[in-house]
Amino acid sequence: MTETTSNMVATPLLEVTNLKTWFPSGRGELKAVDGVSFSIAPGEVLGLVGESGSGKSITGFSIIGLIDEPGRIVEGSIRLEGRELVGLPSHGLRAIRGKTISMVFQDPMMTLNPVLSIGTQIKLALEAHENISATDARQRAIKALAQVRISDPETKVDFFPHQFSGGMRQRVAIAIALLHRPKLIICDEPTTALDVSIQAEILAEMKELVSELGTALIWISHDLAIVSSIADRVAVMKSGNIVEIGPALGVLTKPQHDYTKALLDALPSRAKPGELLLRGSGITDAAPPPRKSATANLPPLGGPYLVIDHAVKRFEKPVGLLHGLAIKSGLSQPVTVVQAVDGVSISLKRGEVLGLVGESGSGKSTLGRIAAGITVPTAGTIRLNGQPVMSAGRSPKKITTRIQTIFQDPFASLNGRMRIGDIIAEGPLAHRLVSRAEAPEYVKQWLAAVGLDPTFANRFPHQFSGGQRQRIAIARALAMQPDVIVCDEPVASLDVSIQAQIINLLIRLRAELDLSLIFISHDLSVVRRLCDRVAIMYQGRLVEEGEAGAIYADPQHAYTKRLLAAVPVLPQAAE
Amino acid sequence: MRDTPLSRFLEEFRRNKVAVGAALFVFVIVLIALIAPLVTPQDPYDLAHLVLRDARRPPGYVGTGGYTHWLGTDSQGRDLLSAIIYGLRISLQMGIIASGIAFVIGAVVGCAAAYIGGRFESLTMRIVDLQLSFPAILLAFVIAAILGQGRYQLILALIFAQYAYFARTAHGAAAAERQKDYVEAALSIPLSSWRVVLRHILPNSMPPLIVVATVQVASAISLEATLSFLGVGLPPTEPSLGMLIANGFQYLLSGRYWISIYPGLALILFIVSLNLVGDQIRDQLNPRLRR
Fold first, then answer.
1. Interatomic CA distance for residues A206 and A119, integer angstroms
2. The complex's ipTM?
3. What domains are there in chain B, each with its CATH number?
4. Do B188 and A418 touch (CB under 8 A)?
């Protein structure tokens, strides 16, 4: 042991050389990781950054030996304190996994077992590497929870995963990862699924914990700003290779490689509000086809257009006859009512972009759906240019086509069994905006307008990437020739560079078509870039509303201040 | 090659050799059943061709007609091979027609219940659940007994016994699809309810229905065989496989095994193949079983 400790300074904790992890696919090999080399000193924090498909997660999985069949490490070596891990039999790997190297995954809901209490799961993790009595295990579990700042750990240790919030679950996952005092923790996008303020807390705690325990950390993320706030060194990955590696500040302020530069330039926080993002263009877009519907009786730009008045949305499960009787007689608990939107009044001026910001559960999406005429409000009115958006009566229906919606997940929002052309043409045909004969040409024009090849019309959605699908979704919304578009987190599931392209597309189309947008997002930097006005939602209510510049410069409400403080920021180069 | 959902499906199907074999077998059987009069040595229903002297002859016997009875003959001197092929033809007809109609009824009921929701959904789905709580054979038996013997009566009985499976499946799938973003996207255009159900929800609810359909065709055939065996199915003038088995049943212990065994074997082979194909389709269409 003394020998290894004395060598510690000289030899790195982990040394990866020329690592190649390939997956055989229908057409040859998919080279997910293709010659990656780096090393980590004990106690060092390395940020591994890249877009989806860059191989950053596979690199992490390769180190801990969790590559799923038929994928395999074809070449290279991974040395942990000088010991080769590649080619180690599975029981050898198991002895290391969780003890010397541990891992924290993106979705804590997926990694925690829903039917076991937290205490039991921690006990199992302890028993994997040591003999421990039940009472000792419980004490260790309580200590571990206290270490990750979970309040009242004596009670919480008997909780089940579903009794925790997302942030708490991720804390539990981190506590489990820290149990055996590993020398290295690999975190694979651990805060991506969390709200900004929770993310900021976890980042700060993680930073403290690793420096306290002297644990080395590999932090895998797509977000440069997050990585810059935690990592000592940053490695940028692109198509299975590390294109740039170096001290965090150096890489992020003086990037050497073109790809790193492009990645940084695509960040919305880097550009000035209202301007196109630097590296977002890529594809040249054609002008959109001329509008057919009358625009004569619209209010002037800047006049109030879409008016939401005291919108309320309660979600409650309908009570059946028997259940109702049971509640009345006191046998059953009354149904819990969720007040998603609690009396919100806001108006959208014609031609403006209104940012609707809030964390998950704030009711921003529900408000957006009410505005778009998808969700029927429990109370309140929504009027577009004085006309109601939904019909009256017992089962209201949307009666206007002037408001359209773009959804968050372009993989879910397109019908996979229809061709792109049919998806775009369906609405306009049903509402007679175009005739059947005109439809193919109309579709082509819109595909060109959103920067897609017009010949794509007879392909199916699965043949497109996420960014392309979102363009199709935009074309579908715009083909209805709306005046208002409700965008529900339209770039949240896209890579940074794709995100920039879509934002640029929205900025351009908005100007060309005089569109008014409601832009729902949790990403404050995107909102800053795109929106004229910002409304902050918290627990179903509007807590602050005003000009974007004013709110960002001088937030009034305590929640807004907290939200803005939690946004991770990139170090700026001194110029 | 064109990349459509169908072409991807076929591409994946081809990888399971057992399923491909079963599919080929099913295809050959269906083909033979379709062109039965051209391939059978004898028309088993034409009484003029039946010679009582040839009755109950073992397989390989060369009869009065001058051709070999490869699978022997039954108690009326019918060539068993021909009878089995004709029997398959009738069984297949019954299975496909009954399952097809049950499919349509079930899909409509299930999708409508899932889309409309509320009281309509509760009412229809409770009826379906009630029906599912009885064994299909019992329901079919009762209906067939009430309606009496005959082709249409039997089809009605089979539909009644089977539509509930389709309705339950369609309801489950459609209720899941109903929640998805693309349906919301269609409603936010807005498109009419009819269009949303027919063009969006129904096509996406198809995969589990197709899986159920392949299994249900097989089960309709065995149901029909069972009913015919029990004497409440098809009239003796249209002998399906079930009736052939029933006819040979009494000779089973006297050593004349072929009259019952061969139709039974044909039935088993066909149903197993259909189920193998159905299994593979289910594996492919159910994303939860994906590795």
1. 21
2. 0.76
3. 5-289 (1.10.3720.10)
4. no
